[in-house]
Design a protein that fits this description.
This protein has a single domain (3-408), classed as Methylamine Dehydrogenase, Chain H, CATH 2.130.10.10. Helix content is 0%, strand content 46%. It contains no helices and 33 strands. Strand 3 (63-65) and strand 4 (68-75) form a beta hairpin. The chain is globular, with a radius of gyration of 20 Å. The strands form eight sheets. It has a five-stranded antiparallel β-sheet with strand order 1-6-5-4-3, with no helix packed on it. Strands 2-33-32-31 form a four-stranded antiparallel β-sheet, with no helix packed on it. The protein has a four-stranded antiparallel β-sheet with strand order 7-8-9-10, with no helix packed on it. The chain has strands at residues 3-4, 47-54, 63-65, 68-75, 78-85, 91-98, 119-121, 124-128, 133-138, 144-149, 168-170, 173-180, 184-190, 197-203, 212-216, 219-225, 229-234, 240-245, 258-259, 264-268, 272-281, 284-293, 304-306, 309-314, 320-325, 331-334, 343-347, 351-356, 360-365, 373-378, 389-391, 394-398, 402-408.
Length: 409
């Protein structure tokens, strides 16, 4: 049953159209970790906390639009969707719904989610919970527009630990990936206004990576990972275009694929980093491996691309920050190790921004020549797994149990 909390009056001007500085989805406005030019500058000597609120557990990242921060969290046995005011952290609206979830026996130290990051498109907010409950909300009023429950497809009895792929808007359709390693997987395109399903791809159970949309020649494709493969899907029809094996013994395909314009970069903690070109011959698509780098193995941290260089965090040596040539796989540089367990990685005009799970924010010069750390901030007292939202006037960060806004000081 849906529960509704108190609504807070907000001026109409704060609710109108989104701005280019809004942080509307997984890894930012363009879904590639690139920070808008107006955000994150100049870098202050330190950060101070403008506000912090307790939100419950989860790994879902905050998104920002129209003067509000939207967050998906959990207070067992319910998942909670909340809109906070950016200015003060006040609740503008909040809803909760029951989402029973039995944790995988191997995931004893993990929260029960949610894992997927919400998506804002216009005045609609879309959330996908750990059990596969997909909801659409009006960002202004908090009214629920529709709900689709895919929880019958989510089975955690084997290795799967819950739905994690963040929703994607492509060609006017809402794209979600649901399922599990026991029940199989689906990539589904829905009408964002009604929730009506337009097409469905069926295959292996999902990994944890989020799908991306790429253009290859004249073909628009959805690329995503399953528990043991990379899949290319026609963005308009849902037809399977190509598939390439990418097996992992624990089904931990977590890193979001990275498209450079010529190469598809995919990485895993046991597989290393691989690059593929996508080619069509006689009407058939193929993913052709062009290079691989076993010693650069990314676990949960999705890399960024700048000037032909991939910046990321390899799990080798307990965490190495690396720079890799995107065309050849050549290692440009790597730190010695123990840099971080995991990290969220973003790209600004001049820097690579790395938020470690230890609550440290590293400002690294964007350079293929050498690792050069310009600043290091401590921004949280507990673990920071979620990708931060960078705004023109500061940061929005989720820690282990709370949400906070930081401003320069």
């Amino acid at each position: 049953m849906m529960k509704t909390a108190v609504m807070v009056a907000v001026t109409a001007s704060a609710l109108l159209a989104q701005t280019p500085q809004d942080w509307s989805q997984w890894r930012g406005p363009s879904r590639d970790g690139v920070v808008p030019a107006a955000a994150g500058r100049p870098w202050p000597a330190s950060w101070k906390r403008a506000w912090r609120v307790d939100v419950g557990e989860g790994y879902s990242s905050p998104v920002v639009s129209g003067g509000r921060v939207f967050l998906h969290s959990r207070k067992d046995p319910e998942e909670i969707v909340t809109a906070y005011t950016v200015a003060a952290g006040h609740i503008a609206w909040q809803h909760s719904y029951r989402a029973e979830f039995t944790k995988n026996q191997y995931a004893t130290s993990m929260a029960k989610g949610p894992h997927a990051t919400p998506l804002v498109a216009g005045t609609s907010l879309f959330t996908l919970g750990g059990t596969g409950i997909l909801t659409a909300w009006n960002t202004q009023t908090g009214d629920m527009l529709w709900l689709k429950n895919y929880s019958t497809l989510v089975d955690t009895s084997n290795l799967f630990t819950g739905t994690a792929a963040s929703p994607l808007m492509e060609g006017g359709l809402l794209i979600v990936q649901v399922g599990s390693d026991v029940k199989g997987g689906r990539v589904i395109a829905l009408d964002p206004q009604t929730g009506a399903e337009k097409w469905t791809w069926k295959g292996a159970g999902p990994g944890y990576a989020s799908p991306v949309a790429i253009t290859v020649g004249t073909s628009r494709q959805i690329v995503t990972l399953t528990e043991g493969s990379i899949e290319g899907i026609d963005a308009k029809t849902g037809a399977a275009l190509w598939s390439s094996p990418f097996p992992d013994e624990y089904h931990e395909n977590i890193v979001t694929p990275l498209w450079t314009g010529t190469h598809l970069i995919v990485s895993g903690t046991r597989q290393g980093t691989h690059a593929y070109t996508l080619k069509q011959a006689d009407g058939t698509w193929r993913a052709v491996e062009t290079w691989k780098k076993p010693d650069v193995a990314m676990y949960m941290s999705t890399p960024v691309l700048a000037d032909g260089v991939i910046y990321g965090l390899s799990a080798k040596k307990k965490g190495q920050i690396v720079a890799v040539d995107a065309a050849t796989g050549a290692l440009k540089w790597a730190t010695e190790g123990r840099a971080a367990d995991q990290a969220s990685i973003l790209l600004t005009a001049n820097h690579v921004l790395i938020l470690t799970t230890g609550g440290e924010l590293l400002l690294v010069k964007r350079s293929p020549a050498k690792y050069e750390e310009e600043r290091r901030y401590t921004v949280a007292d507990s673990a920071t797994w979620a990708v931060p939202a960078l705004l023109p006037d500061g940061l929005v960060i989720r820690d282990a149990g709370g949400l906070m806004r930081l401003i320069g000081s």
